[in-house]
Amino acid sequence: MKQTIKDLLQIPIQNQEVSVKGWVRNERDSGEVAFIVMNDGSTPKTLQIVVDFNKIPREQVAPIKVGACLHVKGKLVASAGKGQDREVLAESIEIYGLANPNEYPFQPKKHSLEFVRENAHLRSRTATFGAVFRIRHTLAYAIHKYFNDNGFYYVHSPIITASDAEGAGEMFQVTTLPLQNIPKNEQGEVDFKQDFFGRSTNLTVSGQLEAELMALGLGKVYTFGPTFRAENSNTTRHLAEFWMIEPEMAFYELQDNMDLAEDFVKYVIGYALEHCAEDLDILEKRLLDEEKSKKQEERSPMPLLEKLKFVTQNPFERLTYTEAIEILLASPYHKKKKFQFEVKWGIDLQSEHERYLVEKHFQKPVILTNYPKEIKAFYMKQNEDGKTVRAMDVLFPGIGEIIGGSQREENYEKLKNRMEELGISTQELWWYLDTRKFGTAPHSGFGLGFERLVQFVTGMGNIRDVIPFPRYPKGAEF
Ligand code: ATP
Ligand code: MG
Ligand code: MG
Ligand code: MG
């Protein structure tokens, strides 16, 4: 295996010949020598290259500026300079690609996130986004590890589907035209590229219904894949394409579902704390810098690392939707009319309400249960009161809703009636109803928005900054 900068930073220093490939983060000509600081993405750290002009002529080094890509061969030696224990004395430099400093957007100075977003195609080269994407990777790995270690099977739910799992009508159509309007080829056949073989289909909004089919046979399963919502996602919490983790478990009731959600989230955040310390450090410093320019009351009460540790070490608050409404009604925010949206039993909680509960009232993550059935999806198990369903939402500080889940309605008649009440086609979802007709079982599951988790762990304020290729109304260029 070829050595990366991460490897070179860990091996013993023995004046040995090494080869470094990577991008220039900084360079400085100090008269007799040049210092070139390189990073290759394998680590948040950089490696310093020292170029002696007696060995490599200055003219060869002069065009090497920030952003250039190099292959350096040289000796790994102890460094006398501050800030690093080692450096490479260059013996040869091959330039893979130069970067014109008048055009390359990322210079060593600090750039605003807005500026980086405008140059998103090159942002994997920056320290901040290197950290974000490495953490995203580690979280994804931790998620698979958690489920694997706990006896869950990874199942792959379809991207193209005929069902609207949420019944919320937020689907991107794969088929847009009525069959008779679809263009035909010379042989008179419909163009299957435009009609998906003559069927009305859409991009999935959730893999839940399919995951239920698998759980009611395999026991414990999870999906982890892209989902799509045709919503006007101009918020810092919504994307048109996002990744969702959806565990689904036979024989789990709401309580078990909550226990799993809490244990799972704590595990993956703990895993990132343990394995991404250097990347988290970079992000915490960036956030502390950013905080300085904010007003006192807008500042985060805890630095990033402390906040993550707090979440992994303290129990989440659990209460019902009805109790939450009572708290909101009794709050000084309600009395002083500081909420933009009205608070009363039956409303779908707005982000301002969720954040009040989490950030002001409890100051820790909260799990809300037993929501009014009118604001939740058709598949949730109905409570005896006839008004609420066994839903659970997990709310996080700075984010709001991070998980939505429920115990599922396992009773065939009740499920069918609810679908009919809501005008959801029982014919189209015959396969779903079949699971309740044959050997039905209590079962539960939830959906965690992966990007919201990454946002929480990295402290990034905008969801578009935690996915490599954000999709939103104006964002689908590459
Ligand atoms: P919200 O109330 O924030 O719009 P939701 O209730 O519509 O979310 P669910 O259908 O419950 O979302 O989906 C489960 C999880 O998926 C949510 O808790 C959230 O973490 C995530 N999620 C939902 N919509 C989006 C989106 N457009 N972009 C990113 N993540 C999302
Ligand atoms: Mg939504
Ligand atoms: Mg919601
Ligand atoms: Mg939800």
From TrEMBL:
Instruction: Specify whether Iron is a keyword of the entry.
Output: no
Give one GO biological process term.
Answer: asparaginyl-tRNA aminoacylation
Primary location recorded for the protein, binned into one broad class: cytoplasm
Please give the InterPro entries that the UniProt record associates with this protein. Answer: Aa-tRNA-synt_II, aa-tRNA-synth_II, aa-tRNA-synth_II/BPL/LPL, Asn-tRNA-ligase, Asp/Asn-tRNA-synth_IIb, NA-bd_OB-fold, NA-bd_OB_tRNA
CDD domains given in the database record: AsxRS_core, EcAsnRS_like_N
Note one Pfam family from the annotation: tRNA-synt_2
EC number of the protein? 6.1.1.22
Q: Name one GO cellular component term.
A: cytoplasm
The GO terms this record gives for MF are: asparagine-tRNA ligase activity; ATP binding; nucleic acid binding
- Family note: Belongs to the class-II aminoacyl-tRNA synthetase family.
Kindly state the subunit structure of this protein.
Homodimer.
Q: What is the name of the protein in this document?
A: Asparagine--tRNA ligase
